[in-house]
């Protein structure tokens, strides 16, 4: 079993033995003996070939097929992505988290990997789908990256879709704040929002907007 820890804010170190999954190309160094192989079908190894193929197809069709590698071995394995800030999330039993694919760095095999539909995304340019990870084992950990230090909010809250990284609980509602000024180019630049109304969940945003712009969950632990 591997234990994830943040190393000097900008990298994650996985220590132990066994295997885990990580974004392809995220390794920056390691000590020990490791092999890395591309995940061709699915990370959910116990669900059978048919379900693995269907999961792969759904990820490809929705654009959420993140290039992943299975890392096996023993020792210390260092991962990073473009000098981004790294955070580690520990899920509660059965808990799910929606994660922006570009911000997913690694996760343990105790997480079921898939996609979830996010209907309101089409209006905000966020996208119709996002990556979904569900705790299915005793050590479900997810490693995320953010541009700058993450902002952790307890719901209810309202966030910018272009800054959101991940969330627990139900998906957000879409809220628009548009008037005549929006259509003549005089808006504030904050015309649409994601609104989380279910109390006691967690939302993480980054202090930076993406360029494309336009036991309850509170028990979720972040290192």
TrEMBL record:
InterPro entries per UniProt: AIM24 (IPR002838), AIM24_sf (IPR036983), Trp_RNA-bd_attenuator-like_dom (IPR016031)
Domain of life of the native organism: Bacteria
Entry-linked SUPFAM superfamilies: TRAP-like (SSF51219)
PANTHER family, alphabetized: ALTERED INHERITANCE OF MITOCHONDRIA PROTEIN 24, MITOCHONDRIAL
Name the UniProt record assigns to this protein: AIM24 family protein
